[in-house]
């Protein structure tokens, strides 16, 4: 660990906190063997999913009555019954007395009906209004509490509510510690619950590119923790780190340049030769930055970023799909960035690719659904890595704090979101881009 500069020590000191410099509240992250939440949860609202919510949640969580005075670590509100703008006052009526009773690191989740799939004008307006409510409430919460919105397809009811369970378990746990103010859409596609929720990826074969270090290495570790076998991929020059990651996760190392035209063939061949099966989870994490103002950016900096960050994931996935090299219920996960959503000065090349990853997800969601799979993306914000540690103190400290949680995230926060997407229990979660940024003030 590099020694902190005087300025960095000052900014993070009790004196700075007293002066009003945001310090952030310690995040409660997931640990195997610990309860998903550290206090009971309250279920509120009255819609088509209320009974199903109570049934699904009463197993892994302790339920608490809304009028109780004891702290609650989770609140789930069924807003599917709000079908007119006049009904939105129920949000205030329910949440107003609840907010002062929430524990630290609380998880608040609102369940609504996907607006674009609603024919009735009033109901569509009411459903869309939930985004403004949840995103604003997320910015009001304190002590690391988060607020999310889950839109469920109108075809989902009590008979197929299991499609929503993996999303609730993710959001109502420490796995979503750095996910805040997000909107997740759930489809009615069949989802297969794992035999053991502690090992939701048991029997799955995963590929993680850029796995030699940083976020990629932690993604590999998290997928392995959840039961997956992992093929760790990185460029040959990163061989030492790649081997270390593969050994740590008891997986295999595959030195490979993802821009190689034969990359897809080599991935499929390795999966068959070493594991005797097809690829179930494909995580496109490999990426580079070559920052320059566009006026000063030469072709090499533009092309390298485009080829690695965007073109390689698109072509590899297309070739694996065409070859039938993906397994049953395949999950494809792209790594985008908040830079691709909000833009960033000096990153026209990088932001182009990260916005392209979102387009990649949107373009292939129907095709993956046709074969029983899904495709989603994570969009990290300020994550504590070697790259951010090398930033000048001022920009780094500002970057850490311009989000609702007032701190930087950890690589495991990105990895937990990837693992959520990778499970067969999340097959109904398709076409989403979830920001892992503590609800950054940049972007939507």
UniProtKB/TrEMBL annotation:
Residue intervals of the Ketoreductase domain: 204-381
Molecular function, one GO term: oxidoreductase activity, acting on the CH-OH group of donors, NAD or NADP as acceptor
InterPro entries: KR_dom, NAD(P)-bd_dom_sf, SDR_fam
Pfam family, any one: adh_short_C2
Domain of life: Bacteria
Family: Belongs to the short-chain dehydrogenases/reductases (SDR) family.
Protein's name according to its UniProt entry: 3-oxoacyl-ACP reductase
UniProt source species: Corynebacterium qintianiae
């Amino acid at each position: 660990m590099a020694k902190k500069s005087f300025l960095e020590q000052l900014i993070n000191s009790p004196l700075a906190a007293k002066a009003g410099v945001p310090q952030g509240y310690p995040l409660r992250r997931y640990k195997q063997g610990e309860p998903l939440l550290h206090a009971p949860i309250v279920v509120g609202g009255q819609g088509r999913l209320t009974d199903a919510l109570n049934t699904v949640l009463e197993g892994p969580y302790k339920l608490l009555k809304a009028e109780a005075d004891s702290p609650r670590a989770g609140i789930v509100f069924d807003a599917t019954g709000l079908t007119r703008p006049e009904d939105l006052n129920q949000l205030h009526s329910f949440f107003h007395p609840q907010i002062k009773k929430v524990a630290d690191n609380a998880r608040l989740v609102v369940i609504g009906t996907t607006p674009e799939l609603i024919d009735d004008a009033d109901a569509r307006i009411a459903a869309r209004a939930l985004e403004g409510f949840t995103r604003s409430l997320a910015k009001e919460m304190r002590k690391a509490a988060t607020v999310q919105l889950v839109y469920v397809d109108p075809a989902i009811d009590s008979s197929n509510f299991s499609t929503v369970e993996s999303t609730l378990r993710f959001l109502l746990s420490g796995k979503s510690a750095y996910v805040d103010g997000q909107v997740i859409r759930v489809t009615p596609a069949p989802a297969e619950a794992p035999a053991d929720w502690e090992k939701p990826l048991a029997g799955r074969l995963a590929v993680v590119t850029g796995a030699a270090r940083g976020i990629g290495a932690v993604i590999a570790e998290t997928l392995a923790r959840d039961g997956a076998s992992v093929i760790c991929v990185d460029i040959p020059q990163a061989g030492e780190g790649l081997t270390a990651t593969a050994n740590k996760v008891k997986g295999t190392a595959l030195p490979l340049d993802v821009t190689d035209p034969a990359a897809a063939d080599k991935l499929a061949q390795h999966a068959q030769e070493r594991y005797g099966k097809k690829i179930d989870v494909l995580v496109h994490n490999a990426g580079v930055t070559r920052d320059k103002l566009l006026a000063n950016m030469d072709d090499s900096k533009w092309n390298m970023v485009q080829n690695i960050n965007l073109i390689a994931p698109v072509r590899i996935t297309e070739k694996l799909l065409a070859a039938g090299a993906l397994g049953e219920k395949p999950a494809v996960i792209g790594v985008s960035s908040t830079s691709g959503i909000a833009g960033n000065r000096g990153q026209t090349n990088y932001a182009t690719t990260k916005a392209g990853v979102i387009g990649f997800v949107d373009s292939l969601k129907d095709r993956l659904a046709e074969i029983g799979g899904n495709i989603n993306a994570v969009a990290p914000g300020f994550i504590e890595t070697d790259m951010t540690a090398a930033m000048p103190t001022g920009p780094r400290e500002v970057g850490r704090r311009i989000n609702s949680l007032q701190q930087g995230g950890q690589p495991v926060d990105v990895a937990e979101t990837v693992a959520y997407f990778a499970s067969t229990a999340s097959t109904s979660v398709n076409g989403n881009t979830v920001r892992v940024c503590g609800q950054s003030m940049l972007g939507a």
